[in-house]
Amino acid sequence: MSVTFTVNGTEYVVHATEINVSTSLNTFIRNHAHLTGTKFMCLEGGCGACVVNLTGLHPVSGEPFSYAVNSCLFPVLACHGMDITTVEGIGGKQQGYHATQKLLAHFNGTQCGYCSPGMVMNMYSLLESKKGKVTMEEIENSFGGNICRCTGYRPILDAFKALAVDADPKIKEKCQDIEDLTKICPKTGSACAGKCSAAGKINPNKGLHLSFDEQKEWHKVYNVSDIFAIFESIGDNPYTLIGGNTAHGVYRRSDAIKVFIDINAVQELRASSVGSSLTVGAGTSLTELMDLLTFTAKQNNSFSYFEHLVRHIDLIANVPVRNTGTIAGNLSIKNQHPEFPSDLYLILEATDAKLTILESQGKTSTVRPSEYVTLDMTKKLLLNVILPPLDPSIYVYRSFKIMPRAQNAHAYVNGAFLIKLEGSNIVSSNICFGGIDPRFTHAIKTEEFLKGKNLLTNETIQGALKILATELSPDWVLPDAAPEYRKNLALSLFYKFALNIAPELKATVKNEFKSGGTVLDRPLSSGTQSFDTVKENWPLTKNIPKIEGLLQTSGEAKYANDLPKFPNELYAAFVLGTESQTKITNIDASEALKLPGVVAFYSAKDIPGANNFMYFKGFMGPHDEEVFCSEKLIYHGQPVGLVVAETFNLANRASKLVKVQYEKTSSKRYPTVKDVLRAKATDRLNDMPYSTLGEEFEAAPNGAIKVKGCFEIGGQYHYTMETQTAVCIPIEDGMDVYSATQWIDFTQIAISKLLNVPENSLNLYVRRLGGGYGSKGTRATLIACAAALAAHKTQRPVRLVMTLEANMEAIGKRYGVISNYEVDVEKDGKITKLYNEYVHDFGSCLNESMGHCAEFFRNCYDNKAWKTVAKGAITDSASNTWCRAPGTTEGIAMVETIMEHVAHATGLDPLDVRMANMPKDLKMYELMPQFRADVEYDLRKKEIEQFNRENRWRKRGIAVTPMRYPLGYFGTIHALVSIYHTDGTVVITHGGIEMGQGMNTKVAQVAAYVLGIPMEKISIKPSANM
Asked: Are strands 582-588 and 632-633 parallel, antiparallel or unpaired?
C-alpha cells in the first residue's frame, strides 16, 4: 500500500520503506521533493515560515477545500488524496511571479526574507479559500501565525491589502507599475496558481495500512467501525488518532507510539446537524466550526450566542492551526494535560454543551466537558459536541480572554459566563475560569451565591466578588504569570461581564464605567513612510525595492539549510547538560549508538585542538568558552557533546538517550541576576570598567524632591527565524563551511584552532542570514565548530540545524538588567543630582561587554551631575550576547524611566521634564518644540485627559521619547569589484553579511552611481573569507 498526493501538480507515491512514519509534510517537501522555499523553523505551528496550501475534498459534502497549513506539523501520510501547493508552485523566475510575490517585494515587505514564503502562501491560501474576495480586515486577522522578526508588519500588510476588495486607494496607487498582477482562475475565481486540483482521484472507500520499522504502523480510515477494529487488533500498543496533529506543537508526541490512525476522512466525525440543538462532529476543524456557528447563529435566534463563541475561537492559536486543528484534538490535549489552558473547553463548559463518547459495540454516553477531561479515553472516541439552544430572553452568555498578544497566544486567564434569568433574577449560572489551577473551572460558591439575586446591583456584584476572591487560589508553575495578577484578572473579568451585559438587561450604569465592559477593538492598522531624495544622485538615493525581494518572496533565495543534501551527509544534534554547577563524571552514549543510523558521538576529549570558540580577548572579553563542557557544567543547556546520525529526527532523538552523570559541587545556583541580588552573592558581582562620574556630581546640591526607584528589563530571546545553522563539507584541501554567521573570520579562526588546521584550509561562505540581531555574532561559531569537528572526524558532510528548543536552551540572549536609581530634583523638573547603579545579567561569563550602555544612558540630557555604577552578574545561564541595539536599549530605557518617574513625582508634563534636562546647545532641544507643535501634542493631551476623566476603567496615554543615537565606526571591510570586459557586467563581493538590512542593494546602488551604469548590470555574490 502507498500514500498518493501531488506537490505543485507532480504526483508522489510514497511507500513505507521510503520515509519514517512520523515524517512531516515539511520534511517531505524539503528533503524528498527538494523544494526549499518552504522553510524549516519552529516545528510548533507558531511562526508560519513553513505554511503551504492544502487542497482536497470534504469527506461529507464532497466540496473542494483549500486552506493554509503548517507543514511542520501536518503529517505527510495524512496528505493521501490531496494536493499541496508550495511557494514554488505559484510563481518564480521561470514561469513568472504571482501577485502576492510581486506585491510583497514591491512594497519592501522583506528584510532577511526567511518568513516571506510563508507570508506569501498564507495570503495565497486566504485568496483561494475565499474565492479571491477578501477584505482588509480579513487579511489583518489572518496573519497572527506568521511571525516576521525583522520588519514590523506595515509593509507586509500593505502589500497584501492591495489585493482586498475594499483596498485603500492609496495602497492601490503603489501597485500601478506592477504588470499582470493577477490571472483569475475561471474555476475558483481566485488568483491562479497555474495548476488544477488532482484531488478526488483516491477511492474514498479503501482504507490504508502501512507498516514501518520499529513495528510502527499507519492507518487511514473512512468510518468509525474501522477505528474500533484497529483498537481491537493492536492490543496494548500505544496509539494516537491523527487529525491536524497540531497538539504536537504544544506537547511533543511520545516516541513510544506505535500506531497512528488518520481519522480526517471519517464522515461521522466531520458531519453536523441542526435540530433543537446543534450537533457537530468532533473531527470538525476549528475554522469549519467557526463557519458553521456563524451560519447557524443567523438562522435561529436561540443560537445567537454562537456569535460570542466565534469571536472567542478566533483567539485560539492562528489560522493555519485552526484550519487543521479539531474540536476533539483540542479537548484531548486538555484530557491528557489538565494544565493546558484550553479556550474551547472553557467556552463549551460554560454553555452547557455535551460531549458524546463512543465505545466499542456502539455503546455511547453523554458527558459535560468538565467530566470528559477526567475520563480515561483509552480506546474510546469523542464522537460529537452538542450545543444547546439558549433563548436570549432567558440566557445571557459572554466570554473573555486575556493574553500576552492580540493573537496566537495562550491565555493568562480566560473567563466564560452564562446566566439563566427569571425576570431580573438569576435562576442558575456558570461562572468559569481557566488559567487559575488545572483542577479549577467553576466558581461553585459564587454560582450558589448568585441564585435568586439580581446580578446588576452593587450589593450583588460586591458580594459575588468577595466570595469569588476566596475561591480563586491560582497555582504558580512557570512560565505562568504571578498568581496575584491572575487572580485579579479573573475578578476583573467577572466585573467586566456584569458591565458588558448591563445595557442588554436594561440596567443603569454610570457613564464613566461603561467602557470597562467593552473589549478592545483593534482597528485596521495604517501607517505612512516617506523619503527625501535628490534625483541627481540616483540610483544612489533612489527609493527602490530590495534587489533580492522577488527571490525572497518566491522562495528562490537560499539560506544555509537550503543547500541540497550532499552524498553521505550526516545530521548532528547537541547533547545538552541539565545540572548546572556540577562536575561531569561520566558520559554514556551507548544507548544512542545502538539506534540504527546513529554514526557517532563526540565530546570534549575528541577535540584535536583548542576546546574554545571565543577569541579576540581584548575586544570580546576575558573568558574562554568551551565548545563542549570538559568538566564543570556552568549553565543549564551547555553542550556536553554531539550526536551524528543519518537523519535530523534520528540525531535529535538519539541526543536525548545520551546519559550524563553529575557530581554535585559546593557552588550555589543563581539562574538570574535577580537571584544574585536577592542572595547578596557578591562573589558573582563584578565591577565593570564603564561606570561614569560627572564632573559636578560630588558638589551637586540636593533637590527639593528626592525620587528613588528600581527598574528591570528581562532577557530576550533573539528569535531569528533561521535557527543556528552550519553545514560543513570535507574537501580535497580542507573544508567548506556554510555557516549562518555574522562574523566570518571569527568563525574561521575558531574552527582552525579547534581542528588544529591552517586557516587557509577553511573556505567559509555566507549567502545571507535568516535574521541575526547579534545572536550569530559569536554564538554561531559554537555551532560551526561542532559541525566542523563532526565533519573532520567522519570525513563526511555534516549539517547541524538547531531545534528551537535547543537554540533557546544553549544560546545566550539579550542581557537582562536591574537598575536602582536615586535622583534629586527641583520643582521645575530640573535634575540636580542623579545616581544609578545597574547590574547586567552576563550569563555564564563576562564576554561581550555592555560598555555602550553608559554612553546611551546619557541620551539627550546634561549628565554633568550624574554618577553611574555598572556591574556585571555571573549567572547559571548561557553566556548572554549582543541583541539588537545591545546596551542602547537598556541605557535609554533606564534614563527615560527616570524621566517619567520625575514627571510623576513633580506633577509636570513628562515632555517638559525632558526639555528641562536637555543642554541648550543640543540639536534635539531645538527640534523638540517644533515636533511638539507638528504632532499637536498639547491638544491631543488635553483630549486624552478629558477622556480619562470620563472613563474610570479605560485609559489613554501619549508619550514622546527622544533618542540620541551615536554611530560607531569600526573601520572598512574589503570589497572586490570585477568588471567583465565583454559585456561590461559587474560582480561584487564584500566583507559584510546580508541579513535583511539591504546591504547588497545599497552596495549595488553605490557601484551603479560610481561606475555610471544601470543597477541591472551589477550582481552581488555571497560573502566569503577569500
From this structure: antiparallel
Q: Please write the tens of the pLDDT for every residue from 463-502.
A: 999 999 999 999 999 889 999 999 999 999 999 999 999 9
The Cα 193–Cα 553 span in angstroms is: 15
Q: Which residues are annotated as a binding site for [2Fe-2S] cluster?
A: 42, 47, 50, 72, 112, 115, 148, 150
Binding residues for FAD: 382, 401
What is the spatial distance between Cα 211 and Cα 523, in angstroms, rounded to a whole number?
Answer: 52
Task: Give CA separation, 217 vs 211, 239, 306, in Å.
Answer: 4, 9, 40
Residue 797 to residues 749, 782, 853, 883, 1019, Cα–Cα distance (Å): 20, 17, 42, 31, 29
Q: Write b or e for each residue in 992-1024: b if 16 or more Cβ atoms lie within 10 A of its Cβ, otherwise e.
A: bbbbbebbbbebbbebbbeeebebebbebeebe
The domain at 812-966 falls in which architecture?
A: 2-Layer Sandwich (3.30)
Domain formed by 393-521, architecture: 2-Layer Sandwich (3.30)
Measure Cα distances from 954 to 236, 512, 514, 515, 947 in Å.
Answer: 56, 9, 9, 6, 9
Once rounded to an integer, what is the mean pLDDT over residues 676-703?
97
Phi, psi of 360 (to 5 degrees): -60, 160
Residue found under cell 509593509: 155
For 271, other C-beta atoms within 10 Å of its C-beta total: 16
Give CATH for domain 2-191: 3.10.20.30
* Amino acid at position 696, single letter: E
Residues marked as binding? 42, 47, 50, 72, 112, 115, 148, 150, 382, 401, 742, 884
- 654 with 598: CB under 8 angstroms? yes
Within 132-211, where are the H helices? 136-141, 154-161, 169-173
For residues 426 and 394, give the distance between their C-alpha atoms in angstroms, rounded to a whole number: 10
Its CATH class, for the domain covering 271-389, is alpha beta
Where residue 187 falls among pLDDT bands split at 50, 70, 90?
Answer: very low
User: pTM above 0.70?
Assistant: yes
Annotation: binding site for Mo-molybdopterin? 742, 884
For domain 570-666+719-810, give the fold: Aldehyde Oxidoreductase; domain 4 (3.30.365)
